[in-house]
Amino acid sequence: xxxxxxxxxxxxxxxxxxxxxxxxxxxxxxxxxxxxxxxxxxxxxxxxxxxxxxxxxxxxxxxxxxxxxxxxxxxxxxxxxxxxxxxxxxxxxxxxxxxxxxxxxxxxxxxxxxxxxxxxxxxxxxxxxxxxxxxxxxxxxxxxxxxxxxxxxxxxxxxxxxxxxxxxxxxxxxxxxxxxxxxxxxxxxxxxxxxxxxxxxxxxxxxxxxxxxxxxxxxxxxxxxxxxxxxxxxxxxxxxxxxxxxxxxxxxxxxxxxxxxxxxxxxxxxxxxxxxxxxxxxxxxxxxxxxxxxxxxxxxxxxxxxxxxxxxxxxxxxxxxxxxxxxxxxxxxxxxxxxxxxxxxxxxxxxxxxxxxxxxxxxxxxxxxxxxxxxxxxxxxxxxxxxxxxxxxxxxxxxxxxxxxxxxxxxxxxxxxxxxxxxxxxxxxxxxxxxxxxxxxxxxxxxxxxxxxxxxxxxxxxxxxxxxxxxxxxxxxxxxxxxxxxxxxxxxxxxxxxxxxxxxxxxxxxxxxxxxxxxxxxxxxxxxxxxxxxxxxxxxxxxxxxxxxxxxxxxxxxxxxxxxxxxxxxxxxxxxxxxxxxxxxxxxxxxxxxxxxxxxxxxxxxxxxxxxxxxxxxxxxxxxxxxxxxxxxxxxxxxxxxxxxxxxxxxxxxxxxxxxxxxxxxxxxxxxxxxxxxxxxxxxxxxxxxxxxxxxxxxxxxxxxxxxxxxxxxxxxxxxxxxxxxxxxxxxxxxxxxxxxxxxxxxxxxxxxxxxxxxxxxxxxxxxxxxxxxxxxxxxxxxxxxxxxxxxxxxxxxxxxxxxxxxxxxxxxxxxxxxxxxxxxxxxxxxxxxxxxxxxxxxxx
Length: 845
Hints:
By secondary structure, the chain is of the alpha+beta class. Among the domains are: about 1-200, Immunoglobulin-like, CATH 2.60.40; about 315-450, Neutral Protease Domain 2 (Neutral Protease, domain 2), CATH 1.10.390; about 460-530, no CATH class. The protein has 27 helices and 29 strands. The chain has a ten-stranded mixed sheet, with no helix packed on it. Strands 15, 16, 17, 18, 19 and 20 form a six-stranded mixed sheet that branches. A four-stranded mixed sheet has the order 27-24-23-29. The longest helix is centred in the C-terminal third of the chain and has 30 residues, at about 815-845. The protein starts with 8 loop residues before the first strand and ends with a helix. The model has no long low-confidence stretch (mean pLDDT about 95).
């Protein structure tokens, strides 16, 4: 059976009425759907799941009322309606009226219940929604496919005193005889079912802020009003910035940002009623670190970018979800850069790009877009390839076309397809029309095949010779595939001048005649989704002479490309270590140091005993100058936020990775430092070396935190302790309810990545597999949890992981799990290949 609904019936408008009972965790509902029957049919088929259908009726255009028979198939999640007289439905306009009951589930999808505990210890319940991809059908019968757009008018019947919000502004409030209140909301623009939302509960709303005629509020649990100011400031900026960028006003009548205590995803772009995890919306700026503030801003900007790109214009089917999410990820970065230029988020974006390059170098990678037959298959698309690679490809194209030309194409796309559905080629066509460039020809290879190239450029007597090869972390999995590469190169001419040039590498190799000079980089600004293919000799020169005049993004790219070469075996670990410890001793950029610190932490895992101690001494020595320049504390007159986070990065490297005694002691003295960024780094270091008393202190902070960032920071730190019994104690919290189910998978992942206790964390996961899968949300978080197994890189343990997961497959996310297992194998191979010679090298230094 096709997962798509039969053609022939098109919804135009839904009138939804729901009456949630928060105490009983149930709801009653009725929906009236205006439809066009386009062809004669014996049945009308729509979607419904986990609902009890009470009645169904069809009111025809000529005032005939037909009571209908109904059959709900649980497996296919289809509701089939038929005439009781056995006749057919004739073409024309009609209205379906369906009554039903449902359950407010605890699975964090559909119409579900969430709870919180107030300051007095009392528990409260709210009802909220999460419909993407296909869970609107769990709240009301509907045509639950993205292309079947319609308008929606929602009515919620709620207990007096509860707050009720939906996609649009409240238009009416009518007291009922039983003491409840009937709350009505304005009709939405035409949109897909997965964007419908409603939230009911003992919540509060901030006073609305007028953003160019659009009222903006934050909805939150009582007592958190003081944590809403940052979100309001970010969102107000975003609404104005996006309206200007897109050249279109915000497409609805209000914006509510809703903080939900239990939420399986990070956030959800429901039109006008955007839902968030509390940690990604509510902020105490005095308690949040710089990365935490930046993450909140980026998520808010991501969701508001969707109001146009995703809500106003929507993919026709789920294979197009990549474009929604990739473009929103690109736009979140652009908007955040405009909001706080000092954060230099395009530099930080290099870290996301590196993550995508790493995954896309696996044999088990996938194409960005591929045929999706069922909505369940779309769940595999919520991954680093969709978000980070997709956004990096959009950035590459924008930088090649030019920012203003690119924006003109985006504006054209939105004007052409407002309120409609599109496929990927529609965007390429608009960008091509705006730029005159063959955008489809350039991008098709990047979208429809996995992987990417490594590019080499060489000066010759005939011009610049440029070639590409398919790059993979396992060289045996490379093949002859190629791409049309939009190159941005920087050339040093014969007179010493530097010049950026742009070419399309549409065949390989290709010689660009008339280009004289030596290539400085084949990836200017590191904006291309490809690797520079440096030789070991070139990297040795950087180790001796430094990275030259490359900018920060290019230096980050140099480190990342060299690390990829190390993982693939074309560069040995001692050469890589020499590169970063000698060649970057004068480095002062945050993003570059984050890349270096991450790879040094990986190398530390390969060493034991004396070799590990000597390695730590070398890391401390190489970072001494930078650490001394920054000092342990911010200066009294302040500093920029990236400098503060660089200090934090160096503290974590020197304390948690290199076990530097003085740094560890300094961090103990700064656990309550007034600078949250410094305090967060100190917490990481203390946790890595902490004892039972420290663990109890950190757990107490987690359990009594009054803001989401402090809570989540201390929860994560509990998985970093080096005592297996302590780590097991917090993992037990995923079973006894002391850790929220939304947080459980990420806590397990962090424990698996623990250098000391990872194997014990695996034993816990394997030993409680069925219970954990019964507790955790059934979404992509389970596959993300298993990312932690990539660190279990000893041969015997890796074999156990493979065997267990072969016998216990996840219900979804198979592609991501395969990628984790391949990366585990690459890490095992690296340990076997490099640990001995790295030990010899560091002991001989």
